[in-house]
Amino acid sequence: MSAYAHPERLVTADWLSAHLGAPGLAIVESDEDVLLYDVGHIPGAVKVDWHTDLNDPTVRDYIDGQQFAALMDRKGIARDDTVVIYGDKSNWWAAYALWVFTLFGHPDVRLLNGGRDLWLAERRDTTLEVPDKTSTGYPVVQRNDGPIRAYKDDVLDILGNQPLIDVRSPDEYTGKRTHMPEYPEEGVLRGGHIPTARSIPWSKAVDESGRFRSREELEELYGFLNPDDKTVVYCRIGERSSHTWFVLTHLLGKPGVRNYDGSWTEWATPCACRSSREKIREPCPSDESARAVGRGGVRLRRSPGPGQAEAAVGIRRRTPSTARRARGTGHGASARMPVPAVLAR
């Protein structure tokens, strides 16, 4: 059996058990169910809440370098620490946290293979004690989105030219549902998928225990990818696609993989804004007209014109170097759902 491309990005439960309390090791629990940490966690682990810790509530973007440094300082994590992240549901949200850590270039961040569920299934040690951490003076490092994060314009640029993978459930991909079966129908205004996207649900990459499948199995699952492809992955708000990003980047060694964290929630929202005199609307890229892009058609105009609509409603033009004001980062409609300006007035 072939080893993963970057096996150092995974640790086993045996390895973590043997290294509990070791100097320079920081353990982070990040769950979809944010209450799980309080009912028992791995000894020494600190909690990172994907919603309140990793997202800026003001601009609906990820936290900036100063906020990340302050978070690491509070959690007792130093820049040169080995960080092992784990969570529930096959590390779904743990992979999201790892992806955010990577935005800030933390040198050594890993996943616990199998996550919280496997740790509990093997009856390993847990505790209710919250560790008392000391300040680490974590340095301020600005986020570097470019290598691993895709924006809407980036997706428009690759339609029909580079692979686009939709990691949601099949029903979400076809438009039968707008969310997973066990969740309420919320957060987007319509169903479907981005033109040219291929459906490969994220959960196919793990087995029944929650551990990642072998490299051979993963190579077969993603066998349609070419070595020089620059793949973009997406889901509903970017968390499930973080898991697939981890698989493609660290387990299969695919270069240039990016996570479109705006995902279907951003893509499916009407691109509308209103001035004081008239409504200005650009074509939505999931309309039939946008499908021509994937077939070699004419590129859509992406904005009403430099600063026109933005000035009319008093918002900044969104670019990869500015906050994602059109894009939420919380789970569910109230936190993540983009609010078109025409609805906000």
UniProtKB/TrEMBL annotation:
Region (Disordered): 285-345
Catalysed reaction, written as an equation: thiosulfate + hydrogen cyanide = thiocyanate + sulfite + 2 H(+)
Top-level taxon of the source organism: Bacteria
Entry-linked SMART domains: RHOD
Chain intervals with Basic residues compositional bias: 315-328
InterPro entries: Rhodanese-like_dom, Rhodanese-like_dom_sf, Thiosulfate_sulfurtransferase, Thiosulphate_STrfase_CS
Domain called Rhodanese: residue spans: 21-128, 158-274
Entry's Gene Ontology molecular function annotations: thiosulfate-cyanide sulfurtransferase activity
Keywords: Repeat, Transferase
PANTHER family per record: THIOSULFATE SULFURTRANSFERASE (PTHR43855)
Protein name, as recorded: Sulfurtransferase
Biological source species: Mycobacterium kansasii
